[in-house]
UniProtKB/TrEMBL annotation:
Pathway: Pyrimidine metabolism; UMP biosynthesis via de novo pathway; UMP from orotate: step 1/2. Homodimer. It holds the Pfam family Pribosyltran. Orotate binds at residues 145, 173. This is Orotate phosphoribosyltransferase. Catalyzes the transfer of a ribosyl phosphate group from 5-phosphoribose 1-diphosphate to orotate, leading to the formation of orotidine monophosphate (OMP).
Amino acid sequence: MINQTASQPASDNWAITADLTSLRQHLLDLFCRLAYREGDFVLSSGQHSSYYINGKEVTLHPQGALAIGRIVVSLLPPDTQAVAGLTLGADPIVTAVSVVSAYENRPIPALIVRKEAKGHGTRAYIEGPNLPENASVVVLEDVVTTGGSALKAAERLKDAGYSVNHVISLVDRLQGGAELYASAGLQFQSVLTIADIQQRFQELE
């Protein structure tokens, strides 16, 4: 028997019924309860931090994934032909967005960008459906710090012949990612910022 997450009982269907404004608030609470921790951490960028956000605690949560899919689909530019992200953090996000897009009669394929080329077969960096040349692809990320992961994904996608102009993140740590994307000619937006999470975390304590 599978135990239900205590903070989100199975009968709570907010991820299905909430409007987008309420949905963002529910998602914020989920990040505070499940993903945000304070302490002494070393990030993937090598930086030391007094807090850590494990985005996968939310992106792999059933209601979290549905909420993310609904919110991000609403943010996608009208000409979006696919969503993509660097494995592993972006994998559940692009999947959730693609599934929700189908339910909203706007089917958008998902692509997964490998960190290294596959060691067999096609030796490809990108997994997913083949798209037309110059197809418009939006890069998705869970947590942005310096911005390097999403930028790497964007570069791989451009090398494959796709058009990449937008990056959307679930959380912006406000540590240089937005500036990096701007310097690379990428438009950037985030669903939440670290300031949102830390303020709400204090309120919930």
